[in-house]
């Protein structure tokens, strides 16, 4: 009887100054399974929750490599996410063709945001129903951006999108101040913790999440299941330990991770943007 | 008879540059201890007539690069329009990223090769030099899009007359003074043996601190060498 008169197309304003179709598209992001991202001065980690539609199907891919130095995690309509990933990939490869160097993350994000904005201003279009966490490294350092269907974009130290992402955000908000100087492995652990928060009691296993890393001297790549499982086991050891022993356990855990991962747990070299401060 | 629409479409009756008109001769470039030096004289030849004597053939591009050109001067001016626009748009991002000499060199390679594929080449040999984040860069592109990097580079006649001297005497850690002396030695040989070279040159310097392009100046010449006496000896014409 009293249906909303102002939400039948994207370009119609409500008297209150809102664009309902755009807001609905933003809702689509909240429906998708969670994706989180966090960064230090040298590394960015993306992680997502894998949900399959039925027992018989596999889950959909939620993290995409864009170029050697950039990757995205998506929440919302996966199909839209794939289309945007394809666009981002072609922008990156065209830039490398012309300049033989990687495209700056911030510039790519602006191009993506402009593309999304056009959809909010054309009567024959619909906004993209997907939110993207864009992680990357360039000459100004490590970056994490969030792009949303409205055409807005923001830079973050750490962020979470998708269903039940609020609990992950709460976790990240509590800990983000230490991320700047975190080691790569610690970032991954925090990412897994944040993912765990969104699961609400469900057991965290390597088959239910995807984790990807990009950083100094490390091209963007998705971690394999075995590696993730090893990280998860480390978390469980830490959680089971009594509170007063936590500090000691953490150190032991780090050593173990170093051995298991064949990577040194040393402090990573500073990012280009931080070198001036030393 | 009515003209039939050409097979090549709208580009059918477009005229292309078939040969250069006003040209500049060699450009030299080399790496040294603190950065990159480039030298070029200021002549602009109209065919074989030395028509212009005040042409700046080395220009700064952004904060980190220098571009020097031999060949068609007007094509170089067009290339500089492309580059200045490129740098303007790069600066408009107003972020911590900027195009360095490597990016400029690669961009120019694409432009030159693209134009040769249209059978309408930009008639130049370009030298790109620069310093960014402590890394020295020196490269060249020809009118066909052929490109390479090296520690010292010379275009045109310089490739024949200056490169052998550079190969013998250049080193990457030479001082500014030694590098200037070496360039002047090469420019003097070119002045003696390249008829399009003139005795008015500029030396451009790029370091981490930025670009300085010298005022035009002349080299001291000595024409009393025995090699210059009786120039037609051993190469007499039929008249």
- Helical element count of chain A? 8
Outline type of chain A: globular
Question: How is the main sheet of chain A built?
Answer: 5 strands, antiparallel
Bulk shape of chain B = globular
- Give the SSE order of chain B as H and E letters: EEEEEEEHHEEEEHHHEE
Poorly predicted runs of chain B are: none
**Class by SSE composition of chain B:** alpha+beta
SSE arrangement:
The complex is a heterodimer of chains A (278) and B (239).
Chain A: H1 20-31, E1 35-39, E2 43-49, E3 63-67, E4 70-76, H2 78-99, H3 105-118, E5 130-138, E6 141-147, E7 153-155, E8 158-161, H4 165-175, H5 184-199, E9 209-215, E10 218-222, H6 225-240, H7 246-261, H8 272-275
Antiparallel strand pairs in A: 1-2, 1-8, 2-9, 3-4, 4-5, 5-6, 6-7, 9-10
Helix pairs in contact in A: 4-5, 6-7
Chain B: E1 22-24, E2 27-31, E3 35-41, E4 44-46, E5 49-52, E6 58-61, E7 65-72, H1 73-92, H2 101-117, E8 124-132, E9 135-141, E10 147-149, E11 152-154, H3 157-161, H4 163-169, H5 176-193, E12 201-207, E13 210-213
Antiparallel strand pairs in B: 1-4, 1-7, 2-3, 2-11, 3-12, 4-5, 6-7, 7-8, 8-9, 9-10, 12-13
Note the main attributes of this structure.
heterodimer, A: 278 residues, alpha+beta, five-stranded antiparallel β-sheet, 8 helices, B: 239 residues, eight-stranded antiparallel β-sheet, 5 helices, 13 strands, 28% helix, globular
What does this protein look like?
The complex is a heterodimer of chains A (278) and B (239). Chain A has 278 residues and is an alpha+beta fold. Chain A is 40% helix and 21% strand. Residues 245-265 of chain A have low confidence and may be disordered. By secondary structure, chain B is α+β, with helices and mostly antiparallel strands. Chain B is 28% helix and 28% strand. Chain B has helices at residues 73-92, 101-117, 157-161, 163-169, 176-193, and strands at residues 22-24, 27-31, 35-41, 44-46, 49-52, 58-61, 65-72, 124-132, 135-141, 147-149, 152-154, 201-207, 210-213. In chain B, the strands form two sheets. In chain B, strands 1, 4, 5, 6, 7, 8, 9 and 10 form an eight-stranded antiparallel sheet that branches. The longest helix of chain B has 20 residues, at 73-92. The mean pLDDT of chain B is 93. The chains are: A alpha+beta (278), B alpha+beta (239). The A-B interface holds A 97-101, 104, 106-107, 138-141, 272-273 and B 93, 95-97, 99-100, 102-103, 106-107, 110, 133.
